[in-house]
TrEMBL record:
Keyword Chaperone set for record: no
Family that this chain belongs to: Belongs to the peptidase M20 family.
The species this protein was found in: Jeotgalicoccus coquinae
Binding residue positions for Zn(2+) 1: H84, D95, H191
Protein name: N-carbamoyl-L-amino-acid hydrolase
Keywords: Hydrolase, Metal-binding, Zinc
Gene name in the database record: amaB_2
């Protein structure tokens, strides 16, 4: 297996071809989940699966699986390799797609070289990882892991007012299989880092051993609109004062106690949003992430306690919606060790690291041992048309995936 390499030109050609699916008249890549563009991307992916004569199956949530199995390993739990192919708005071409297509390339390389494996290999393309059209993100893998009821998830309404289940039917990807019908022995996800660490520190491969916990909320503080000049402070019911108190309490606690937690107020809307009027309402988003359970849990409790404190004062109304609470994940030590060993066999430098972004692997880790492989992202840029990983780095990552898979499959 050590001498076996993927076909780099074939992988890169597929990445580029899929990267053209979903371009608008401005040249922007917009392949949102269950859109016409997503259907076109899915159809192209399935055509490549069919060329290899793989067993193609789709579950009720539109997750696509293609399995290579032979007579001697039928009935064994498969090794699953995958990611997603839906995109954000004005996306790059590597996020998600690289992992799925590298899984395909791994299977094709093993198959055309007549490699014998002790179990099947399944390539997975999960639905709605990005969560742009149907919030929240990672819905497909969340449903697949059994942590979200399938019927509830199918009733999710998109930002354009359409029901997820209806859109699945419309594009022809509402399958018959129940989510979780394939139980993987293990799962590996190859991905661009989407951060600057590998690029800045000069490492070629990231062996991802854990993934940050992530919480997302929308918080609304309501007060009373009034004149900006003639209303003294003690008579004000100003929701922006509550916002600044809330965020400064959070930031100060995190910094004072050295928590490995980051908090981001990424969006805020004021009503009536006028320069000379005390706002009546402030609605903002809060994204919090931490790789450790201690940092994650402490920060979550602080948020709830501070909201209760503001509400108890009685001047400001408080409403908080928790869209997602994903606990920190520790990936499988044995798979991570095999990733490091595979990189070493290929004379590639590697670094144990944490994923700052969410991925399908964190959900599949709940049902099977999982881990991730990262390759560098130039300047850490992602979710952006400037997203770039060099051809050499892309091929390196796919070869690490191939060799890691071969180790887990006892390939000969």
């Amino acid at each position: 297996m050590e001498h076996l390499k993927i076909n780099g030109d074939r992988l890169l050609n597929r990445i580029n071809e899929l990267g053209e699916v979903g371009r608008n008249e401005k040249g922007q890549l917009i392949r949102l989940a269950l859109s016409d563009e997503d259907k076109e991307g899915r159809d192209l992916l399935v055509s490549w699966f069919n060329e290899l004569d793989l067993k193609i199956e789709v579950d009720r949530f539109g997750n696509i699986f293609a399995t290579w199995e032979e007579e001697h390993n039928k009935g064994e739990k498969p090794l699953m390799l995958g990611s997603h192919i839906d995109s954000v708005i004005d996306a790059g071409i590597y996020d998600g797609s690289y992992g799925v297509l590298s899984g395909l390339e791994t299977v094709q390389t093993l198959k055309e070289n007549n490699v014998k494996t002790n179990r099947p290999v399944t390539i997975a393309a999960f639905t709605n990882e990005e969560g742009v059209r149907f919030p929240p993100s990672m819905l497909g893998s969340l449903v697949y892991s059994g942590d979200l009821d399938i019927d509830k998830a199918l009733d999710t309404i998109s930002i354009d007012g359409l029901r997820l289940g209806d859109e699945l039917e419309r594009i022809g990807y509402a399958g018959d299989n129940e989510p979780g019908f394939i139980e993987p022995e293990a799962y590996i996800e190859l991905h661009i880092e989407q951060g600057p660490v590998l690029d800045k520190e000069g490492f070629e491969i990231g062996a991802v051993h854990n993934l940050q916990g992530n919480s997302r909320r929308e918080i609304t503080f309501t007060g009373e609109a009034n004149h900006a000049g003639s209303t003294p402070n003690y008579l004000r019911k100003d929701p922006m004062q509550a916002v600044t108190h809330f965020m400064s309490t959070l930031y100060n606690y995190i910094n004072k106690n050295g928590l490995d937690t980051v908090a981001t107020l990424g969006s805020i809307q004021l009503e009536p949003n006028a320069a000379t009027i005390i706002p009546s309402k402030a609605t903002f988003t809060l994204d919090m992430r931490s790789p450790s359970e201690k940092g994650f849990d402490e920060a979550q409790q602080l948020v709830r306690d501070t909201l209760d404190e503001i509400k108890a004062e009685g001047k400001i109304g408080v409403q908080a919606t928790e869209f997602a609470i994903f606990e920190p994940v520790t990936f499988d030590k044995t798979i991570v060790e095999n990733i490091v060993a595979a990189a070493g066999d290929l004379k590639l430098s590697s670094k144990l690291m944490t994923s700052g972004a969410g991925h399908d692997a964190q959900m599949i880790n709940r049902i099977a041992p999982s881990a991730m492989i990262f390759v560098p992202s130039k300047d850490g840029v992602s979710h952006n048309p400037m997203e770039y990983t060099s051809p050499e780095q892309l091929v390196n990552g796919a070869n690490v995936l191939l060799l890691t898979a071969g180790r887990l499959l006892d390939a000969k």
